[in-house]
Design brief:
It is a single chain. The chain is an all-alpha fold. It has one domain. Helices cover 53% and strands 0% of the residues. The protein has 3 helices and no strands. The protein is elongated, with a radius of gyration of 13 Å. The mean pLDDT is 93.
């Protein structure tokens, strides 16, 4: 599995996951579990949708 999530993208995903989890906790909703998706993709450095659309936010290695 090739990495396709860059550093800036990873930080944005982690912040987004924290916000989603916080809102889920605040509103006492199961929707807060959606935070697992951006958090998992951030830590795996792989987004399964990126190859479908031909996207990669990683720096190119020369």
């Amino acid at each position: 599995m090739k990495h396709n999530v860059g550093k800036a993208d990873k930080i944005i995903r982690i912040i987004l996951a924290i916000i989603i989890a916080g809102l889920g906790y605040y509103y006492q909703s199961w929707w807060g579990l959606v935070a697992i998706v951006p958090l998992a993709t951030a830590f795996m450095n792989f987004c399964p949708l990126y190859p479908i659309f031909g996207i990669s936010t990683c720096k190119k290695k020369d």
